[in-house]
């Protein structure tokens, strides 16, 4: 592979790699309630634009996620969330637009939630599962980079969930 550069502006992102689109019906099981209107409209909840990097040790994968604003009966739109399969791998998120909350937890039961706004850099250490929640009313856009061989374990989170969920209130968000 040779050095390369990609750039993007707003939502016109072409990182030349995979584009992953998650619609409501693909991920509705992660939310506490079911919303029949969303079920019939089936909107895009988030999309991921990856760079064409091989999933090999030594490589760094990078991507941009756009998580749209919205909620399911008060529970904010969020990503599925995962542990890395190679658990000793960290990740860095850089906020570009909107306001997010990154829920992090370990298999030992530790839990942390950190806010991400434009220009803030979030460090997710090895062994911490992570899920992103859009707590704003605009698209949450962020850049991520992690060891390309890390892999994604979604099953553990599907089975066990995160310790807390994030709901909309009149004054902001609340964790329950
Ligand atoms: C992120 C996430 C991305 C989508 O790039 O993969 O935001 O979230 P889910 O993978 O949980 O659906 C990341 O943490 N990659 O390792
Ligand atoms: Zn990750």
Provide the fold topology.
Elements lengths: L18 E5 H4 L8 H6 L2 E7 L9 E8 L3 E2 L2 E2 L6 E2 L6 E7 L2 E6 L5 E6 L4 E4 L4 E6 L5 E8 L4 E2 L1 H6 L5 E3 L4 E3 L1
Antiparallel strand pairs: 1-2, 2-3, 3-12, 4-5, 6-13, 7-10, 7-12, 8-9, 8-11, 14-15
The site of zinc ion has 5 residues, from loops.
Write a structural description.
- By secondary structure, this protein is mainly beta.
- It has one domain (14-175): Sandwich (Jelly Rolls).
- It is built from 3 helices and 15 strands.
- The strands form 5 sheets. Strands 1-2-3-12-7-10 form a 6-stranded antiparallel beta sheet. A 3-stranded antiparallel beta sheet has the order 9-8-11, with no helix packed on it.
- A hairpin with a 5-residue loop joins β8 (100-105) and β9 (111-116).
- It is globular, with a radius of gyration of 16 Å.
Distance between the termini: 46 Å
**Helix count from the secondary structure assignment:** 3
Which superfamily, in CATH terms, is the homologous superfamily?
Jelly Rolls
Low-confidence stretches: none
Shape: globular
For the largest beta sheet, what order do the strands appear in spatially?
A: 1-2-3-12-7-10
Give me the CATH architecture, please: Sandwich
The structural domain count equals 1
CATH class descriptor = Mainly Beta
Bound molecules: 5-phospho-D-arabinohydroxamic acid, zinc ion
- Major sheet size, sense and barrel closure: 6 strands, antiparallel
Chain-averaged pLDDT: 97
Strand-pairing-aware structural class:
mainly beta
Here the CATH topology equals Jelly Rolls
Percent range for β-strand residues: 35-45%
Number of strands: 15
The succession of helices and strands, N to C, reads EHHEEEEEEEEEEEEHEE
Please compute the radius of gyration using only Cα atoms.
16 Å
Helix content: under 10%
């Amino acid at each position: 592979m040779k050095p390369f550069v990609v750039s993007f502006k707003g939502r016109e992102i072409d990182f030349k790699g995979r584009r992953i689109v998650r619609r409501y019906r693909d991920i509705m099981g992660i939310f506490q309630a079911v919303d029949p209107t969303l079920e019939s409209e089936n909107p895009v909840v988030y999309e991921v634009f990856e760079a064409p990097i091989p999933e090999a040790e030594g490589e760094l994968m990078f991507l941009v996620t756009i998580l749209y604003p919205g909620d399911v009966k008060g529970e904010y739109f969020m990503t599925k969330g995962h542990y890395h399969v190679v658990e000793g791998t960290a990740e860095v998120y850089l906020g570009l637009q909107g306001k997010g909350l990154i829920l992090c937890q370990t298999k030992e039961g530790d839990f942390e939630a950190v806010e991400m706004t434009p220009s803030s850099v979030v460090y997710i250490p090895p062994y911490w599962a992570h899920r992103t929640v859009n707590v704003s009313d605009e698209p949450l856009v962020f850049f991520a980079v992690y060891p390309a061989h890390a892999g994604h374990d979604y099953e553990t989170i599907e089975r066990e969930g995160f310790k807390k969920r994030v709901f909309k209130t009149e004054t902001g968000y609340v964790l329950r």
